[in-house]
Amino acid sequence: MEPITLAQEAVKILDKKKAQNIKLIGIEDISSLANYFLLANGTSSTHVKALADEVEYQLKQKNIVPDHVEGYRSHSWVLMDYGAVVIHIFTQDARDFYDLDRLWKDGEQVDISGLLTAD
């Protein structure tokens, strides 16, 4: 699956599970870490874990598995590394503290408005 397609699929999965403040940042022009960073918030540590579980489950149904997952025990930030796409799911406090939005502000802000359901 192409990186942008994988990222868009993850956006839809997170949106359906009520993730908040979903943001997709293209970083391939400024970093060799990945092509895209996907950032999202859960409303609690339980919600963060549920979001990560759902992304992993839904993508596994399409035979896509992460290279690495970190943070299930932290209860505030789960990082899911799918190679070209790295997914960060935070509590709001952790997102504010680590401020990846600011750190990667030079990346391309990908328009995902067409992928999100209107609430």
From TrEMBL:
<dbReference type="GO" id="GO:0042256">
    <property type="term" value="P:cytosolic ribosome assembly"/>
</dbReference>
<dbReference type="GO" id="GO:0090071">
    <property type="term" value="P:negative regulation of ribosome biogenesis"/>
</dbReference>
<keyword id="KW-0963">Cytoplasm</keyword>
<dbReference type="GO" id="GO:0005737">
    <property type="term" value="C:cytoplasm"/>
</dbReference>
<dbReference type="InterPro" id="IPR004394">
    <property type="entry name" value="Iojap/RsfS/C7orf30"/>
</dbReference>
<keyword id="KW-0678">Repressor</keyword>
<keyword id="KW-0810">Translation regulation</keyword>
<dbReference type="GO" id="GO:0043023">
    <property type="term" value="F:ribosomal large subunit binding"/>
</dbReference>
<dbReference type="Pfam" id="PF02410">
    <property type="entry name" value="RsfS"/>
</dbReference>
<protein>
    <recommendedName>
        <fullName>Ribosomal silencing factor RsfS</fullName>
    </recommendedName>
</protein>
<comment type="subunit">
    <text>Interacts with ribosomal protein uL14 (rplN).</text>
</comment>
<comment type="similarity">
    <text>Belongs to the Iojap/RsfS family.</text>
</comment>
<dbReference type="InterPro" id="IPR043519">
    <property type="entry name" value="NT_sf"/>
</dbReference>
<comment type="function">
    <text>Functions as a ribosomal silencing factor. Interacts with ribosomal protein uL14 (rplN), blocking formation of intersubunit bridge B8. Prevents association of the 30S and 50S ribosomal subunits and the formation of functional ribosomes, thus repressing translation.</text>
</comment>
<dbReference type="GO" id="GO:0017148">
    <property type="term" value="P:negative regulation of translation"/>
</dbReference>
